[in-house]
Write a structure and sequence with these properties.
The structure is a homodimer of 385-residue chains. With 385 residues, chain A is an alpha+beta fold. Chain A has 10 helices and 17 strands. The first copy, chain A, is globular and about 65 Å long. The two termini of chain A are 36 Å apart. The interface between A and B is large, with 66 and 67 residues. Chains A, B: Pathway: Amino-acid biosynthesis; L-arginine biosynthesis; N(2)-acetyl-L-ornithine from L-glutamate: step 1/4; Amino-acid biosynthesis; L-arginine biosynthesis; L-ornithine and N-acetyl-L-glutamate from L-glutamate and N(2)-acetyl-L-ornithine (cyclic): step 1/1.
Amino acid sequence: MSVTAAKGFTAAGIAAGIKANGRPDLALVVNTGPSRAAAGVFTSNRVKAAPVLWSEQVVKGGAVTAVVLNSGGANACTGPQGFQDTHATAEKAAEVLGHSAGEVAVASTGLIGVLLPMDKLLPGVEAAAAELSAHGGEKAAVAIKTTDTVHKTAVATGPGGAWAVGGMAKGAGMLAPGLATMLVVLTTDADVDAGTLDKALRDATRQTFDRVDSDGCMSTNDTVLLLASGASGTVPEYGDFADAVRTVCQDLARQLIGDAEGASKDIKVEVVNAATEEDAVEVGRSIARNNLLKCAIHGEDPNWGRVLSAIGTTAAAFEPDRLNVAINGVWVCRDGSVGDDRDLVDMRFREVTVTADLAAGDRSAVIWTNDLTADYVHENSAYSS
Amino acid sequence: MSVTAAKGFTAAGIAAGIKANGRPDLALVVNTGPSRAAAGVFTSNRVKAAPVLWSEQVVKGGAVTAVVLNSGGANACTGPQGFQDTHATAEKAAEVLGHSAGEVAVASTGLIGVLLPMDKLLPGVEAAAAELSAHGGEKAAVAIKTTDTVHKTAVATGPGGAWAVGGMAKGAGMLAPGLATMLVVLTTDADVDAGTLDKALRDATRQTFDRVDSDGCMSTNDTVLLLASGASGTVPEYGDFADAVRTVCQDLARQLIGDAEGASKDIKVEVVNAATEEDAVEVGRSIARNNLLKCAIHGEDPNWGRVLSAIGTTAAAFEPDRLNVAINGVWVCRDGSVGDDRDLVDMRFREVTVTADLAAGDRSAVIWTNDLTADYVHENSAYSS
């Protein structure tokens, strides 16, 4: 279903020859209207890839007619030539589709520091346009894969099925190797203006994609776009719409974690009883980024001392001797000291839940991460060579 | 030479039975005077082990007669009982040595969340006292090892050999598995008051131990002590003394990196042309903590894009299109884009230098780290189980 689950969109995915192995590497998503409202969120890394710099400007206009996405190269740290290449890509799509380049967003993913093969990419845009279809969502999702083992799509619908939000994603956010990137395109046939799309998208990403932290490494290319065609003719209630967008984002975010490179465990870090949501997020992220804990979980070792040492590096409100930690529901640490028998913890399944109780308030947050494995090291030490 | 290189100190290292494998696990260092001036720096982790809480108070008094150190257990996250155990350890040493417990520092290293076997430790303090010798420094250094493959000592002397600064260290700072800790004891026979020791020690650790960042994980037990006996009868020039302390700290810090678990590369991250030293340290630490870069270096892959993406997550002053990066002296990134041929980079040797030029000022800093390897994952996923 993907980006063509909602009415008013066509998509295509083809092999343009950007990837040396001949796999699909170019996707095109087109909004056929009647509305072209759009919003986007981008990496907060100060080193931004050329397509991010370009698409940020496009989205500021509040309208997006088409998105060109390529795998096989991130077009990051490529200087003025890289930016010209992104511009030329948008111009080519505009020319083929008969629209303005100022409404064409571009997203790229792959190795940093390598120029894209424009002699392959530009003809690819023409070829993809010829394949555009209201059933092309799956092929588009496949074409943006890099080291993803599966393509990722999700759909949610409004009350009575009056409208839909669909989406596709690639990458495992900051985990992707050398690689840059989580790319996400969401579409809806609800009739929603750009300002409302922006609000719904930011609310959703703050609680979903922003709380996926596979390896603490922030990409230069992260891009999440939300396009509205208005083709359903329905203006949704804001709450319903925001729920649908968040549901699709959460679904895709969970799929990213589930496909993270080299991972053998998906780790849900729940922080509860924090003084503020910010505290809960800070503590959750600190736990999620602790390499020693991630190794321990890989070894199915409920090493709660590593959780406490991670909490201790934060500025969150808590007293060390009131901290409690559960692993898969067993409170192995109580009041900052030894709790229930660690042998009671069953860590055989892929999903592991670490619960940190700060005993400092009533706020909470969840951060998702993965374990740290020898496979991660292997994939990421051999990628570009 | 170690902690007995300076006159006025005795030391011992024995096997007290704390470690199940029967290896040495208890060290005692005694200042025989005439001075007992001392200073210390401790982990900034808010979750502090019992011996850290105890020794911070001891050091505040400005005098330390003896230090009891054990491996085989960190006595961290052990609640009120853990603190009582540290207190009892100091009392036992005071009783055996005929001094006040208020001048006995305690340091522990090993697994977090496990009570120490006091029935082994307290008799061990007596046994160690019986072995005290002016030549006991090496044995003390051996007894504090955990997963260290070698014991670590260093010595520097003042002008004309009038006085000396010696030291021992264990651990690889924040890298040690599950494990807690870098423990360091420095001694000197120079006649220096506690306030001056504190200043020299803080100046030295800020530029040495604080800039070793193996895996970004901060211990609950880090302890660095500096004890002065005054036995040389010489009051040194401050500059000479501070230099000697820094030299010994730098030597020991480099040894810690060289023995980091699972590491195959020692990585020197140099940040140059920063606007401020703080900027240089922030950028250096961000690069040093980037798992993707650490994997790439393990694979001898000069993946400079990962350096740029790490710099981009900081708040330091820089313009993305003016950044330059060299790996082992080859400027593979110039002006934020592709620079010299990456195939020119030779990464076969253990030491690898990453140079980040921020082009924003004239300040610099060096952070040392290690690569991320499958061996690191193996050691840290199997340690406590």
